[in-house]
């Protein structure tokens, strides 16, 4: 009788573990922030306030040159792991200003900005 009870207890424990793990497998990441995908830095169209749908999306680290970006735009850093970004007045990531921390954004005049640089954590 004890063997049967132990077997039933072991089965119940295993079944509970499988159910718990299957719940984790179904977990989904949070929705992208204002349409900016997880792991990206996004630039939104001029004067789109609040930010809804980005016009530019950058994923790779390093400088990204901008063209035809004038006036005020939201720039959101939706990277993770401590990655930062900065707005730069020169092309190729030169003349960069202070860094934009992950999970934050700036509403900036991009007229003098010629590139955005994404930095590894």
From TrEMBL:
Signal peptide: 1-27
Keywords: Signal
Signal recorded as keyword: yes
Protein name per the record: Peptidase inhibitor family I36 protein
């Amino acid at each position: 009788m004890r063997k049967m009870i132990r077997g039933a207890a072991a089965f119940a424990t295993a079944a509970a573990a499988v159910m718990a793990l299957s719940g984790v497998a179904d977990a989904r990441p949070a929705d992208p922030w204002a349409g900016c995908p997880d792991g990206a830095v996004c630039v939104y169209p001029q004067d789109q306030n609040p930010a809804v749908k980005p016009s530019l999306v950058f994923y790779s680290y390093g400088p990204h040159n901008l063209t035809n970006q004038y006036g005020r735009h939201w720039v959101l850093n939706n990277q993770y792991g401590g990655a930062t970004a900065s707005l730069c007045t020169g092309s190729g990531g030169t003349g960069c200003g202070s860094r934009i921390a992950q999970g934050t954004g700036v509403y900036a005049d991009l007229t003098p900005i010629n590139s955005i640089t994404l930095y590894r954590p």
